[in-house]
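Worked example 3 (structure in, sequence out).
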């Protein structure tokens, strides 16, 4: 609706726009296609006997470092527009050598990522948020971390 207020000393118009649910959900629509992949080493638990909490923490470190490293990137900005709907997938590799192979594959494909190093070992890779379709060919051979 358009309202006009006329006074001898003041004249202005106010346009009231009804709330549109579609606008509130635009951020969700933008982020639905974005995913952040974490690739963790399984041997940290099975061979090196790290506590589960310590392994989870490595994923948190890698994720946080990746987000901060690429904080000005449009994909990261879009990914964080709807914080309650950020989507992450955690995948596993057998050991450090397998993690290095994934890292090389990401570098060759020019995919932005952050490799987290703990105790002088590469323990986790966080891939900058991107479309699932773009990353699927590079990561399809990896299993979910369970």
């Amino acid at each position: 609706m358009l309202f006009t207020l006329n006074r001898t000393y003041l004249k202005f118009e106010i346009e009231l726009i009804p709330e549109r649910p579609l606008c509130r959900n635009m951020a969700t629509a933008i982020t639905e296609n974005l995913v952040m992949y974490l690739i963790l080493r399984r041997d940290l638990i099975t061979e090196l006997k790290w506590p589960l909490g310590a392994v989870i923490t490595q994923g948190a470190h890698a994720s946080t470092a990746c987000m901060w490293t690429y904080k000005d990137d449009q994909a990261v900005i879009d990914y964080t527009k709807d914080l309650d709907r950020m989507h992450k997938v955690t995948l596993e590799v057998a050991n450090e050598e397998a993690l290095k192979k994934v890292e090389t594959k990401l570098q060759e494909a020019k995919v932005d990522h952050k490799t987290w190093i703990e105790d002088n070992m590469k323990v986790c890779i966080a891939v900058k948020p991107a479309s699932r379709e773009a990353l699927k060919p590079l990561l399809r051979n990896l299993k979910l971390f369970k």
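Notes: The first strand starts at residue 2 and ends at 6. Residues 34-144 form a domain with the Bit1 fold (CATH 3.40.1490.10).
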